[in-house]
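INTERNAL AUDIT FORM
Audit reference: QA-55
Scope: verify that the stored structure record matches its stored sequence.
Auditor: D.O.
Record contents follow.
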Amino acid sequence: MAAKQFGVDIDLLLNQLLNGRIENGTGFVSGGSGSIGRVVYDTTAQRILYDDGVNMQTLAILTDVTGLLDFKGGYNATANTPNLTSGVGVLKGDYYVVTTAGTFYGQQLEIGDSLFAQTDAPVTLAGWTLVQGNVVAATETVAGIAEIATQAEVDAGTDDARFVTPLKLKAASYLSQAFVSASTSVGGGTAVTITHNLGNLKPAITIVRDSTGAVIDLAIDNFTANSFDITKNGASYNVTVGVVG
């Protein structure tokens, strides 16, 4: 093909170059510092190359990038908006977040789930990667999010949508609480107050003599919700008091 050569720069004075075509071919190599900025099209790789004065560099497109994620916005899975199932305009690496629950190729999607295109123009479920967001309310069959129950909700025992922590379960009003005193000297008819802080006026009480391990009976009175007195006549000895209530 005949070519007209110019030995000087061409200044178009800001006019457009219409229907232009850059040089096509293969096997391009850098022409050195004198060729910096030269632009060509590699017909084999189907990519535009430019000369940086050392190498011919490729102007990549987004799908050339391995592991690319290109966030495209929200996806209404009920209305299929935008239309992802057609595959039209979808490129590998396109990433959508579900804003309205629905089905996608028969797969149930919930708000917060993510869709990643694995190929250009995918038209089957296999062309997508689906990642659950799990921002829906948890149920017995659906993994999701849930609120921690308050102590009042735990005590009421009627809420089936919130989680119970070990601390609140331990303090639940319908469960027995336990207290064990330190070794305590009692005797001489002097009352000794046992403070258990269980909030129970009628707890179950066990008194054990430390030296023998025997369960013994002593006078018990002056009950409050959190304490009571024990009294023993005669010589003093040490006991340990267990309270359940």
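Auditor finding: record pair retrieved intact. The longest strand covers residues 237-244.
Action required: none
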